[in-house]
Structures are given as C-alpha cells and as structure tokens.
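Work Package 3 committed the consortium to producing structural models of liganded targets before the mid-term review. Because experimental data for this complex are still outstanding, the team generated a predictive model from sequence and the ligand definition alone, so that downstream docking and mutagenesis planning could proceed in parallel. The input record is reproduced below exactly as it was submitted to the modelling pipeline, together with the SMILES string for alpha-ribazole-5'-phosphate.
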Amino acid sequence: MSLLADTVAAIRPLDAAAMAAAQARHATLTKPPGSLGSLEDLGVRLAGLAGTCPPPLPQPATVAVFAGDHGVHAQGVTPWPQEVTVQMVANFLASGAVVNAFARQAGAEVVVVDVGVATPLLDSDPDGLAGGTAGADAGSAGEAVSAQPGMQPRLVRANVRRGTADLSVQPAMTRDEAVAAIEVGIRLAGDLVDGGAGCLITGDMGIGNTTPAAALIAAFTGAAAADVTGRGTGIDDETHGHKVAVVQRALALHRPDPADPVGVLAAVGGLEHAALAGFVLGGAARRVPVILDGVIADSAALAAAALAPDAVGAMVAGHRSAEPGASVALRHLGLAPLVDLGLRLGEGTGAVLAWPIVASAVRVLHDVATFDSAGVAEK
Ligand SMILES: Cc1cc2ncn([C@H]3O[C@H](COP(=O)(O)O)[C@@H](O)[C@H]3O)c2cc1C
Ligand SMILES: O=C(O)c1cccnc1
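The resulting structure, written out as tokens with the ligand in place, is given here.
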C-alpha cells in the first residue's frame, strides 16, 4: 500500500475507556464539576487520543510552516506580489516573522517546508539552510528534524512543484502531485513525532492561498463561494467581488466531488493545503494532537477528515480566523476554536497562541489534587 493509504488505515477512533477514565478523574479534582468548561472536554478527548489517562503533556511542540505559490495569483485575487512567499520563507528562517516571535514566546520549534514555492531558494538564504531545490525528492520530507525548542528555525526541502497552475482555468495540480504533497506532510509529522514532538502545530505561507482555501471549503461543505471567500490579507469590495467570482468559476469548471478528496485538492487546492492535510493525517495516525491555525489549515483539515473521518479526533481548533470560511469549516468539523482574537495572518500564529491552553487542559489531569488527597470537603 502507499504511504497515504497506510496512514489512513492507521487512523483509529478515540479510546472510549481512556475517555471514561479522564471524565471520572475530572469529577474527583478540587474544582466544581464542569468548571473548566470546554477545557475538560479537550482533556478527555486527548486522553482518548493517547489511549491513556492522564494523556502525555503535548510537548515539545513544532510549528510546521508549509509554503507554496498559486497560479491563481494571476487573476488578481491578492494585492501582494508572489515573490513575498519566498521572501517570507527567508524571513521565517531568519526568525523575523510573527510566528517566530510567538513560537519563541511559547517555546515551540519552527520548521519551514518548501512544498511548492515558485522561486528557487538560494544558497545565500539566512543560516545557509536554504539550498537549490531543483530535483528535490518530492517523496521525502527532508532530513529528520528534532523537536527541541529554542533551536534555530530550519528548512525542509520538499518542493513538489514550483507553484500550482491557475485553478480558475485548469486543475491546480495533478493527482500524483497532490498525493506527493500530502505525503510530504505525513512524513514530516512522522519525523517530528520520532524526534520527540508531543504536539504538532500547523502553519502556512503562500501569497494567494486564501483563494484555494475558500474553494476547498465550498467543495467540502457545500457552502456558497460568497459565504466562504474572505478578504485574505486585505482587499477592497471590488477585488473581493472578483475573488468570489474566481472561486465560483473554479467550482463550476471542476465540479469537485467531496467523495474524492485527492481530486478536490488537485483541482482547486494548493500544495501547502495538500501537505497540511497530510500533516494532520500523520499526527492522527501517530495519535498526537494537531493544532489547526486559520482558514488554510481549516480547509486542509476538511480534506483530511474526508480521507479519514476519525482524524478529527486529533484536531484541535487553535483559533477562529476572521476569514468567514474558517468558521464554516470548523462548524462542519464539529470543532470549537480555543482563541478568538480577530487574527487573520496565518503562518501558524493563532495555533501557537493556543498551544499553552491545550497543554493546560492536559496538565490539569496530571497535577490537580483530588478532594480526597487535599482534604477538601465535597458538596
Ligand atoms: C507580509 C505577509 C506575511 C504573511 N504571513 C502570512 N500571510 C498570509 O497571507 C497570505 C494569504 O492571503 P492572500 O490570499 O490575501 O494573499 C498567505 O501568505 C498567508 O500565509 C502573509 C501575507 C503577507 C503579505
Ligand atoms: O486565516 C488565516 O490563517 C489567514 C487569513 C488571512 C490571510 N492569511 C491567512
């Protein structure tokens, strides 16, 4: 079987006995029952994911920033030039982006993955980490990376294709390319877990990538393009109307079938969206929580859930992006976001902010005294 098929087959439901144990333990802890709200549900779910109570603390964590470019950029759906993608890759490697600041604050490692950047990365990139990517093995996520926090950001060279085709006039990529990009994400998730990561965090970089995200969300949820297409980095009313029309045109052209998730990704997705779907599947197969960032991760999570419905058990919605499609996708997945700060950046920023909350939900099950042990009277 292929890596994708093996991974999908390895994804199992949550462990009911571990969840029951976590629920029972919550009832014994020195707090009014239910007083931690949805954090109690999260702790129970992560016990079910790990198959043990208490579940392991979700640390250390790595945020994987999957970078790709988009042929639909030619349609004028974003005000930013395409070169900003590769320029931001250099910025991530130099620790200069917002996600680097948030990751440093939280103690998470940053890994940048070139899965589909249009411009070849130069040897002169910061830290000498970026090399020529021509002929890179699309089936590999690069060398194994460890998850020790406090380390320099690192680059994984796994370019499947130098940007997608324009999804409004032809398929964004071939099915083989979509599978190759998914498998980049699966391999990286496995490498990180092998290196000790207890939590995976999704990140993205790709000028124009809110357009394929909207198309994916419409395809998987059945929502109208107008209800899931947002303003991305910031566009005026006229450009937004044009962007909605581009998404509508792509959906009418390809008629993506949600029962064929790889076909949907190939037709209207992006290389980073496909890799993110694989990253989620890889985390779910290894039973490690995956914190979703914004609309790009949410759209990829829909593809992962369509491939393996039980993968939703490993997903944690880090935050509610201001992009309208994000809320539509999270509702479809049945996930409630942990943080709602009006962020609309991507890179993994909202998910990194949510990580300490996820860890706190687990730590309660480790550290909090019981009524018995603390000598606190019950009602
Ligand atoms: C400087 C800069 C840094 C970013 N970091 C994330 N994004 C975010 O914005 C882009 C998507 O928005 P749209 O579809 O409107 O182009 C993606 O690169 C996403 O990661 C950025 C965008 C810019 C310009
Ligand atoms: O939701 C996101 O992650 C997002 C929103 C706008 C632009 N880039 C990313």
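Reviewers should note the following from the model. Residues 3-55+364-374 form a domain with the 5,6-Dimethylbenzimidazole Phosphoribosyltransferase; Chain: A; domain 1 fold (CATH 1.10.1610.10). These observations will guide the Year 2 experiments.
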